[in-house]
């Protein structure tokens, strides 16, 4: 049986009125009381009935969006796409730049539980999956498996990894490195890595990896790139799992007098408008950022209309394309 | 005498209850009715009493921020700074990417009038100043003079223009061009241009301008840069009024075989972390983006606490610094 508001009140040790005020964010409630109420809601898996609320005209017309870092051009362009789509429909975007801050991400989920936003789009990488396991909240995920109740939208990272690797092979490379973080579970980079591995194996070529995590500083990444280029390992091609790392690699190659593409061929991943415009020589795999944004919003509207609806399909994979350029 | 809610109702031809519902965004009201009520509020210069509201605990704890383009790294970093400062204080950021859309900007001002946000930070370039002339709304402006009731935060654009020009002169340049849009009133670029003009005049050098507007496409800008470099005008130094335009200029110089800095010296303006990290050779004038963000938020809090308070000081100018690099 579905838990009731009175069950939450009993568990939290407060009145039903207080629970209602927390849920509807009405009047002053101490953070301590809020925490107790949210804990009880979570423990009982209590869900305010969103559909009923929306029929009562209590939609907030606000959507929360959680991104790991708005200053990364990929996320800036994704946010711009989502914001434009929402604005066309009269929705507003609450932006949460969660930069490794799981508390911040957590507070956004609380806002959703408290009916302060109608839904959430999350592209974050912080919280444990269990936080997202609760049923029936209107959440859509970008690029990360959260739970079988949360639709995930992603680019075709595996195919992108294949395309990038094949482009380097076609250009004559034999000793091709993958630069990225292949190990993290639920991370889209993993599929780019798998595409690389399978394509190398099909071509009968040995695979090589240089680890570079998303959250490492650009300086640390630059040093790792320099070390890779200065080592006596054979190396004539590099597939970087993101464009920004590819730019750092190109800088280091330039400083060491390694000619691109003659001595070294480089391809990135992401293909933001910014990088395509200001570094037009970089070969890359282009993610369809505008289409990703539009699909995230469309799926979220469906979850808002009926958060408990069974998902026929959990995962939506959008096509990518190869952009051939001077670096290969 | 200050207009009352009943005056607004009479002017709008509806009941006081309807006006109250519009102001408090409660229940369903048609857009037509909303427009009539807002028009009446504007005509009568009616202000809901924000101070009284905040004492009643009706703060929304949400701040609207209007930027011309979140995909421009400067604004992405400014938004990130504002969002982090607000989050530390329990505020949330509603992001409006107004990209030449004055309707969108207008709707945000309506949200402020309707108590749906506590205040607005605007860095936009669309609306006519008269929209911002109304008294007592908690608004803070970035880089644009809106009205003597709205505090403006800006970098020291004039001094930045002087520093950039003097750096080119010190590096031996004689024929220095300013690339930017010097003519638009209220635009920060104008002061960068004045700094350029005064510094050239002090050095007894002739001034030259190549017009490039903020909103032109990168392709149009690239073509203009190419034309400038290919003309038979004497030219050994360029001060670009923003870093992204400087990058386009460097690309065109590279394609034309013009050596930087030997044949041409280039300096930009903005100094985002992104450009400093991924194009570390570019000389530029660095705006203190984190400090600008913190000051915008601090001044907005003061306006929220008392929107009618007399401003001792309307304009806040933050220092910039010269970053010498390989392009000069």
TrEMBL record, chains A, B:
Pfam families: LacI, Peripla_BP_3. GO terms for molecular function: DNA-binding transcription factor activity; transcription cis-regulatory region binding. Residues 3-57 form the HTH lacI-type domain. InterPro entries: HTH_LacI, LacI/GalR-like_sensor, Lambda_DNA-bd_dom_sf, Peripla_BP_I. The keyword Repressor applies. PROSITE patterns: HTH_LACI_2. Keywords: DNA-binding, Repressor, Transcription, Transcription regulation. This is LacI family transcriptional regulator. It comes from Lactobacillus porci.
């Amino acid at each position: 049986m579905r838990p009731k508001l009175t069950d939450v009140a009993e568990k939290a040790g407060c009145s039903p009125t207080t629970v209602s005020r927390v849920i509807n964010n009405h009047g002053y409630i101490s953070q301590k009381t809020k925490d107790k109420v949210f804990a009880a809601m979570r423990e009982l898996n209590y869900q305010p009935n969103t559909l009923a609320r929306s029929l009562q005209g209590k939609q907030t017309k606000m959507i929360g969006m959680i991104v790991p870092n708005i200053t990364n051009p990929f996320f800036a362009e994704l946010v711009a796409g989502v914001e434009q789509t929402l604005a066309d429909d009269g929705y507003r975007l609450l932006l949460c730049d969660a930069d490794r801050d799981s508390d911040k991400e957590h507070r956004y989920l609380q806002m959703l539980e408290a009916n302060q936003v109608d839904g959430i789009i999350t592209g974050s990488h912080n919280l444990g999956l269990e936080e997202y396991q609760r049923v029936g909240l209107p959440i859509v995920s970008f690029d990360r498996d959260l739970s079988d109740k949360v639709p995930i939208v992603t680019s075709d990272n595996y195919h992108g990894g294949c395309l990038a690797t094949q482009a380097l092979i076609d250009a004559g490379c034999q000793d091709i490195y993958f630069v990225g973080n292949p190990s993290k579970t639920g991370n889209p980079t993993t599929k780019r890595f798998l595409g690389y591995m399978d394509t190398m194996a099909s071509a009968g070529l040995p695979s090589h990896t240089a680890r570079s995590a998303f959250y490492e500083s650009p300086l640390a990444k630059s040093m790792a790139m320099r070390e890779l280029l200065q080592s006596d390992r054979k190396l004539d091609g590099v597939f970087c799992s993101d464009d920004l790392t590819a730019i750092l690699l190109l800088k280091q190659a330039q400083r060491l007098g390694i000619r691109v593409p003659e001595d070294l061929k480089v391809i990135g991943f992401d293909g933001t408008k910014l990088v395509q415009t200001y570094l037009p020589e970089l070969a890359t795999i282009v993610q369809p950022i505008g289409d990703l944004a539009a699909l995230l919003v469309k799926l979220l509207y469906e979850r808002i209309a009926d958060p408990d609806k069974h998902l026929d399909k959990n995962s939506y994979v959008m096509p990518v394309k190869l952009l051939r350029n001077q670096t290969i």
